[in-house]
């Protein structure tokens, strides 16, 4: 049976009971409008933990003014029935007043990591994410929390926050789930017109192109970035935000590729901003 809590107090009581019974808790934080990507995290959590809690909360603090907070798709009843089918034990579904009863004066600052890549066009976004994730960790006290590789920068920032602030939680990062044509699943894909939806495969195609270049031994990061940018610019409906080859820990750009790299793209189709990424390991070989 799936229990639903909309207050922090009720969630805390459930946590206390489960922990007193010696159960481990897995948390999957989401903003709802669930798809197979979210459900893959839920399934992993079910395998790894005795009890699974899913939070559904569209967090206003991570939306920059002018973004889609109001329009963000919501479908709680549908989400709940999907989670019931997955055997989720608890769903935490607070409203904004419950999570932010007062104007907060405290937030989690992540410095440069939050300014690079998506931070360039969404300045306070990662502060909002780190802060709400820290709150969710305190409320639901998970042993493990599950995040998607799809949002690579978010996953890296959460992992660093947990290390820096000694949260007693293990972060597990799960692979990106894609549509048949390669488009990464996202709650925002519903915003796309049929035409833009077809063109949106450019994100994955540009990542595959980067992968092929790296596998063929090309190690000049800016050449790879340029080729990706050209591919994306050739798609009329696509407006490039970034296409970068970066160090997977610092998210800083690099000149020569060596070992692991994160290739990350962000592209706008009208008002809809899509992101995707790939972790690629360059084989140590002669450079071209
Ligand atoms: P949301 O976009 O709903 O995503 C919730 C979780 O699902 C994140 O960890 C995200 O990386 C993962 N996810 C999304 N699409 C995925 C896909 N195609 N494959 C695998 N995993 C995928 O990310 C957020 O919500 C919020 O920022 C949140 C962490 C809940 C904080 O508000």
Blueprint (SSEs and pairs):
Layout: E1 3-5, H1 8-20, E2 25-30, H2 36-48, E3 51-56, H3 76-85, E4 90-92, H4 96-99, H5 118-121, H6 125-140, E5 144-148, H7 152-165, E6 170-174, H8 194-199, H9 202-215, H10 221-233, E7 238-246, E8 259-269, E9 272-282
Helix pairs in contact: 6-7, 9-10
The structure holds pantoyl adenylate.
Q: Can you tell me the residue ranges where pLDDT is under 50 for at least 5 consecutive residues?
A: none
Which percent range fits the helix content? 25-40%
Total number of beta strands: 9
The radius of gyration over CA amounts to: 19 Å
Order of helices and strands: EHEHEHEHHHEHEHHHEEE
Can you characterise this structure?
It is globular, with a radius of gyration of 19 Å. 37% of the residues lie in helices and 20% in strands. It has helices spanning 8-20, 36-48, 76-85, 96-99, 118-121, 125-140, 152-165, 194-199, 202-215, 221-233; strands at residues 3-5, 25-30, 51-56, 90-92, 144-148, 170-174, 238-246, 259-269, 272-282. The chain has 2 domains: 3-174, 3-Layer(aba) Sandwich (Rossmann fold); 187-279, Pantoate--beta-alanine Ligase, Chain: A,domain 2, CATH 3.30.1300. Strand 2 (25-30), helix 2 (36-48) and strand 3 form a beta-alpha-beta unit. The structure holds pantoyl adenylate. Pantoyl adenylate binds at residues 29-31, 37-38, 40-41, 59, 62, 129, 132-133, 147-148, 150-151, 154, 174, 176-177, 184-187.
Could you give a short description of this structure?
The protein is built from ten helices and nine strands. By secondary structure, the chain is of the alpha/beta class.
């Amino acid at each position: 049976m799936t229990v639903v809590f909309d207050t922090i107090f009720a969630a805390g009581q459930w946590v206390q009971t489960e922990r007193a019974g010696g159960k481990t808790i897995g948390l999957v934080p989401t903003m709802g409008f669930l798809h197979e990507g979210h459900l893959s995290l839920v399934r992993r959590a079910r395998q790894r933990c005795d009890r699974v809690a899913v939070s559904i909360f569209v967090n206003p603090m991570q939306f920059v003014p002018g973004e889609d907070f109001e329009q963000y798709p919501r479908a709680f009843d549908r989400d709940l029935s999907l989670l019931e089918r997955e055997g989720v034990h608890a769903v935490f579904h607070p409203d904004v007043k419950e999570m932010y009863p007062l104007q907060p004066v405290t937030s989690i600052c992540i410095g440069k990591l939050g300014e690079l890549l998506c931070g360039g066009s969404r300045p306070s976004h990662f502060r909002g994410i780190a802060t709400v994730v820290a709150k969710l960790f305190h409320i639901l006290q998970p042993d493990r929390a599950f995040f998607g590789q799809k949002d690579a920068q978010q996953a890296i920032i959460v992992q660093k926050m947990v290390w820096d602030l000694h949260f007693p939680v293990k972060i597990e990062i799960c692979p990106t789930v894609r549509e048949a044509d390669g488009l990464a699943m996202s709650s925002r894909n519903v915003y796309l017109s049929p035409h833009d939806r077809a063109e949106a495969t450019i994100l994955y195609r540009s990542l595959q192109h980067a992968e092929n270049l790296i596998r063929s031994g090309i190690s000049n990061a800016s050449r790879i970035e340029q080729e990706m940018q050209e591919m994306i610019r050739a798609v009329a409906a696509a407006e490039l935000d970034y296409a970068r080859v970066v160090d997977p820990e610092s998210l800083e750009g690099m000149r020569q590729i060596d070992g692991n790299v994160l290739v990350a793209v962000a592209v706008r189709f009208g008002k809809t901003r899509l992101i995707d990424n790939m972790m690629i390991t360059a084989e140590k070989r002669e450079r071209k």
